[in-house]
Design a protein that fits this description.
Length: about 120
């Protein structure tokens, strides 16, 4: 988790605490919307991600826009929301490979156009 948060901070300009919250929010959303095995594998390969997911607010209504609102509430601006999401997907590709991440992104309506 520290590696991912440091990467998000360096590449998006996000505050470290906001970046950590963002990881939890995004992974929590993916757990509810994506293929469970792919999301579980990503969480398993990201030490500390399970705690971030547990600390994230419940997934509410609104799909991706609801998640964007949660991310902005965590301290990100709209540009950082998209940048953090893209960085998290790039990180997931490194950990899981293109095929798994393509399946994950493709399973969440609208996510492919966002990243």
């Amino acid at each position: 988790m520290d590696e991912l948060v440091a990467r998000l901070v360096a590449n998006t300009g996000a505050d470290p605490e906001a970046a950590k919250k963002a990881v939890g929010i995004i992974l929590n959303f993916l757990q509810s919307e994506g293929p469970a095995d792919k999301v579980a594998a990503l969480i398993a390969q990201t030490p500390g991600a399970d705690a971030a997911v547990a600390a994230a607010p419940e997934v509410g209504f609104g799909g991706l826009m609801g998640v964007a609102n949660q991310l902005m509430g965590a301290g990100l601006d709209m540009g950082q929301v998209q940048s953090v999401t893209k960085e998290l997907v790039a990180y997931a590709r490194e950990k899981l490979g293109d095929e798994a991440v393509n399946e994950l992104v493709g399973s969440v309506p609208g996510l492919s156009s966002f990243v």
